[in-house]
Amino acid sequence: MADVVKSEGRKIVVAVDGGEESAFALQWCLRNFVSISATTSSPRDTLVLVYARPSPPMYSAMDGTGVLFSSEITASLDKYSRDFADSVMDRAQKICKDYNNVKVDVKVTEGDAREVLCGTVEKIKADVLVMGSHGYGFIKRALIGSASDYCSKNAKCPVVIVKRPAA
Q1: How many CA atoms lie within 13 Å of 15's alpha carbon, on the beta-carbon side?
Q2: Which pTM was predicted?
Q3: What's the pLDDT tens digit per position in 94-111?
Q4: End-to-end CA distance of the chain, in Å?
């Protein structure tokens, strides 16, 4: 039986969120996945950096405390969120700059990170999802949830969860 050869490289999705854990996971991915292909004649991999911008909260004209929200305040919050997303992606792209053997795509999407990541890997038919672990304990994970735990159970591709060593 002949081996099936892909006409293009792998699609590696890396979750980035501005934290040290995701930066470490991205660096780990570049050293352990991408750098290997640099020594072969295999096609160039595509690294898809995904940042899920939190959905803006819905405010009525007055919140529960009677504070009036103006359109300038909500516009300012949205601008801050967009600027932060740009900063996260700039940092991630700088980490990738020394790896010429990989194509880097950037996706900033609004929504819950768990759903965004699982949706992205399914949509682009990713070969693997790489994400950092914040190392939440049982209680915190139970209260706020864990994106890595959710993705490991629901993503339509293998998931590599990279734990940053303790300092």
Answers
A1: 31
A2: 0.78
A3: 999 888 778 899 999 999
A4: 49
Kindly give, in sequence order, each residue whose CB lies less than 8 Å from that of residue 119, ignoring residues fewer than 6 positions away.
none
- The superfamily CATH assigns to domain 11-29+43-163 is HUPs (3.40.50.620)
Locate 71 and state its tokens.
């359109």
Domain positions in the chain are: 11-29+43-163
User: Considering Cα of 97, then 98, then 100, then 101, what sign does the dihedral take?
Assistant: negative
Nearest to 131 by CA among 32, 54, 22, 27: 22
**In the β-sheet with 159-163, what is the strand arrangement from edge to edge?**
102-110, 45-53, 11-15, 128-133, 159-163
* CA-angle at 58, arms to 143 and 63, nearest 5°: 90
